[in-house]
């Protein structure tokens, strides 16, 4: 059963997420998260170490740039209906599996239906190093693709994408498709 929670503030949002493997941490289950190990995730979720509620400078940059991402999406795709989740802050959770997500954007796109777009604020050199494959094409790092996959399944979306905001002399924001591969959701649930 998927539950929708609308926490009244950040503190309530953090409390709602305490027991769940959230989309932002699910990559640790696969040993693919850039900032969290499986052991750390286990220790946090079992209460052996406290979860940090501190907002890092990178997290702050991402939060502050989300409205910019919304504007870019609206300009580049005027036929999309874009809902920025920050306005409602809806947290979706699979109560049985203890999986949760707070998608950045829910999007109704003609011909595609309901989708999720996960925004990441990425420094330019980090983007080149972590996001571009050997041929120079953008692809989402595995832990972020898993994040978008989890968000899509929890909201019942038929597609998912990641939009890295690449900050340099200008602002670039490619939209990267995240294929919803059969079996991945089941693997996430099993690992959790």
How does this model look, in words?
The radius of gyration is 16 Å and the shape is globular. A hairpin with a 3-residue loop joins strand 8 (159-167) and strand 9 (171-172). 34% of the residues lie in helices and 24% in strands. Strands 3, 6, 7, 8, 9 and 10 form a six-stranded mixed sheet that branches. It has a four-stranded mixed sheet with strand order 1-4-5-2, with helices on both faces. It is of the alpha+beta class.
How is this structure best summarized?
The chain has helices at 10-17, 38-45, 57-76, 124-131, 142-155, 184-191, and strands at residues 2-5, 21-22, 81-84, 91-94, 99-101, 105-109, 113-123, 159-167, 171-172, 176-178. By secondary structure, the chain is α+β, with helices and mostly antiparallel strands. The longest helix is centred in the middle third of the chain and has 20 residues, at 57-76.
């Amino acid at each position: 059963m998927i539950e929708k929670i609308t926490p009244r503030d950040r503190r309530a949002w953090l409390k709602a997420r305490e027991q769940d493997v959230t989309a932002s941490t699910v990559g640790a289950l696969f040993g693919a998260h850039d900032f969290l190990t499986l052991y750390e995730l286990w220790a946090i979720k079992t209460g052996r170490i406290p979860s940090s509620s501190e907002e890092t400078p990178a997290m702050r940059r991402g939060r502050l740039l989300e409205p910019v991402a919304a504007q870019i999406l609206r300009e580049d795709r005027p036929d999309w209906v874009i809902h920025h989740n920050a306005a409602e802050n809806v947290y979706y959770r699979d109560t049985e599996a203890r999986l949760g997500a707070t998608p950045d954007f829910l999007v109704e796109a003609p011909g595609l239906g309901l989708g999720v777009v996960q925004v990441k604020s990425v420094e330019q050199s980090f983007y080149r190093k972590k996001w571009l494959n050997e041929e120079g094409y953008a692809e989402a790092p595995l832990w972020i693709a898993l994040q978008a996959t989890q968000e899509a399944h929890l909201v019942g979306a038929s597609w998912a994408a990641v939009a890295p905001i690449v900050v340099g002399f200008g602002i670039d924001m490619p939209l990267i498709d995240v294929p919803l591969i059969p079996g991945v959701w089941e693997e996430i649930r099993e690992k959790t």
